[in-house]
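Re: export button greyed out
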Amino acid sequence: MSSQYYRLEEIASLVQGQYIGQADLRLQGLASLESAQAHQLAFVNGDKYLAQARSSQAGAFIVTASLQAELDNHHNFIVVDNPYLAFAILTHVFERKHTQRGIESTAQIHPSAIIADSAYIGHYVVIGENCVVGDNTIVQSHCKIDDFVEIGQQCFIDSHVTLTGAAKLGHRVRIHANTVIGSEGFGFAPYQGKWHRIAQLGSVIIGNDVRIGSNCSVDRGALNDTILEDGVIIDNLVQIAHNVKLGAHTAIAAKTAVAGSVTIGKNCIIGGGSAISGHLNIADNVTLTGMSMVTNNISESGKYSSGIGLFENQKWKRTVVRLRQLADVPLTQLVKRLDDMQSQIESLESTFKLRK
Amino acid sequence: MSSQYYRLEEIASLVQGQYIGQADLRLQGLASLESAQAHQLAFVNGDKYLAQARSSQAGAFIVTASLQAELDNHHNFIVVDNPYLAFAILTHVFERKHTQRGIESTAQIHPSAIIADSAYIGHYVVIGENCVVGDNTIVQSHCKIDDFVEIGQQCFIDSHVTLTGAAKLGHRVRIHANTVIGSEGFGFAPYQGKWHRIAQLGSVIIGNDVRIGSNCSVDRGALNDTILEDGVIIDNLVQIAHNVKLGAHTAIAAKTAVAGSVTIGKNCIIGGGSAISGHLNIADNVTLTGMSMVTNNISESGKYSSGIGLFENQKWKRTVVRLRQLADVPLTQLVKRLDDMQSQIESLESTFKLRK
Amino acid sequence: MSSQYYRLEEIASLVQGQYIGQADLRLQGLASLESAQAHQLAFVNGDKYLAQARSSQAGAFIVTASLQAELDNHHNFIVVDNPYLAFAILTHVFERKHTQRGIESTAQIHPSAIIADSAYIGHYVVIGENCVVGDNTIVQSHCKIDDFVEIGQQCFIDSHVTLTGAAKLGHRVRIHANTVIGSEGFGFAPYQGKWHRIAQLGSVIIGNDVRIGSNCSVDRGALNDTILEDGVIIDNLVQIAHNVKLGAHTAIAAKTAVAGSVTIGKNCIIGGGSAISGHLNIADNVTLTGMSMVTNNISESGKYSSGIGLFENQKWKRTVVRLRQLADVPLTQLVKRLDDMQSQIESLESTFKLRK
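Workaround output, generated via the alternate export path:
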């Protein structure tokens, strides 16, 4: 799409690596090993991609020194310690930038809102009372920034995002399309067979460098705030209920639900499709594999699971039949009884032999 | 945020309780026991919060008479039978109200639509042919109210909601941001290796006092209607397929999917992340715990489950290995065989003793 | 709603069937057997609906020849080989059509975009640079069509849809409300305790006759594209991660998550609430039942499962206790040990008898 290029030497310097080969080789983009052409750069993410790399048509390769030594049929390289990180850095070089600044004429902005001159406010954005939008922040079309919401600097808010509940966002926050931040938490007092709504009075506080995918829901707190600390990353279609607290640099994969008042520590990785029950505490450095269900506190860091992988359907049906019997089978006694009976038999046998 | 206040005596009267202490104590809001300050009111939701309550800085406490007796270091109370309900009622007193009325100049409203004078229609709302919006209903910015949709009185429809499929909403219905009501059900006739779309001709009928969270999908029926009876409450990211019928006052937690033509009774509680297969009937007063999967009718009220809680990962792996063996282990026979063998051994032993 | 009618004879010809009865019977719509009235047509989808059909008030019935023979209390029929398919075809005859063409005055369209004269662009739609919208395509209100997105002919894009990431859509594609196509994939390089964003440079390619429900997320690829082949159908609230490839005519039910770089074959059926881990390959003609979790490649077509159906809660609790013991019970050895002990006992018995 773009005809802009970078020279091999320049790219090496962007990722603090060494180049090998033709310093002025012109490279116009990144591509996968399979699809890369002579004007493109590919990265080799470990030994298992060496065969693919050997037959790749890429103009140059991002590699470690040891990978480079294995690729003697190629001539142009960027040598770094961490090719995946170098690749991550270079995606920013080649991505299409949003350069527009200013406020589209169709945006509706309350006079009390403060919008930085360097921000961009797209078509049909609606911004309420006392809102703040920081420097170089991009707010795409159709967003709703409700009263008292504040957004820091260099944020990216994609189309159709709803920010409400007086949410406060830090700097460099990215929120993808159609996500809702600060909507009302699911709080009801049951009384005489009906549900009595508890208006939610808390807010949502989002730190710096937080990333939230598309179609997510992050609810405002009931009294205190829902809190996402710095560096939290969240995939698509994730539910974060009221009064949840997510520790710094925790990652949550798609379609996970975190129920109300859960506290998750720092540097956790929550697999996709997981569900965490309300009012639980999860320690730092916890990894949950996909489709885990958490119903108790987790006080030790480590890896935990409860999702069951696939069975052939007929075998699965027979397995579930057994599972339905399991409650009435005293499993731990079985082994003990077997051991006891074994002793009895052996005792009988030996007595029997003695009396021969 | 607000400088408005209520006197202790006034608050007691709002929740039909008794005040103890200083009648004219000024209270400006609700807060949690931990964070409350002298101008705020906190509630004590049972004995287990007594320690927190004793050390709280709140100006006054909502309590039962027996809780009050335990808090002799404090002086100002609202005494009620049900503090949680009183708290729920007071959240409405202290929440920020939407007071605007009328139609924003940027809203696009079909001439055949009937909008109550006391309604509020936000910026960039689009309202189609023959729609109705009732008294005191708030429709926030960017909503799409498609042709033939009718909304009752005192409803709240948050931003980016899509109401289509000629949906009919009762009174006091609340629909949170980015939810879709009345979109096309997932109906296809398979024929010669392709899927043939079945245009959906039914609608969605929503009763009074229904609450639907953000990012939910409620599909219109194929021929008959999808029905949500009075008082149903639904959390975020919930799927309600075509021709589902939800009984009055049933509650559904986040990320649940209810498949087509399911009927759920009244006063049910469906835990988060559950999935209910198509064409099933679920009785009144059924509770499902989190991540339940329903594949058969439930004819008896009661509590049901199938979600498995977390294991340490290595133990889980060994558990799944056993689970994969389970189909071929005749569990119920094991115990019987053990019993039989025990008899045989005892018989051998006794015969043996007799012959000594 | 509509007063238009079709004669029985006309309807028979629309579905290439035979009519029996009154050729000029006027029919105004389709209805279910229970609710149909004399001016409506109902279909009988097999023997199990015969009792309902006999007591139905429908004016005419879509049936097979053998079903017709069983319904001698009725007089008007459309006889076809496949009543369900005929019904699917007729829903299109009776559905309300969107007849508006042209561009609403409030739409914001970049001068470089090419919009077919026969397309409809709704209120407050925003269309970016170099976009294409094909003949007879309907784009409902508030959609965001971001730069370089291309949409084919006869597509239907409902309100609040976000199309971004330079996505390319084929012909007759239907995308329901509030869905996001082409948003950024969830790619981060971990380094020194932080997540480093990988800007996503690939796109999304969607074939002809693809259907995507409401509130779905389909992410753009990291380098290569995310691909949905012709005839794929997807229900609501489904996550399709970056670089997924879905084979032609595969169907995915609601609330399923397909993780990054998964390839699913043709003609698969993925049950609701399923989750498929990253980088897996699934063969053609695979069926997954509801709430399946896939953690390994599936190389054989067939039916697979791992979701557990419901238990009464107390029994479930006891079952989970046993499940937690299962890792330490040598299941396959148990049966072998029982067999061994049985032999020992029998040997003892026979020796004993011999010596009597």
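Chain C has a mean pLDDT of 96. The button fix ships in the next patch.
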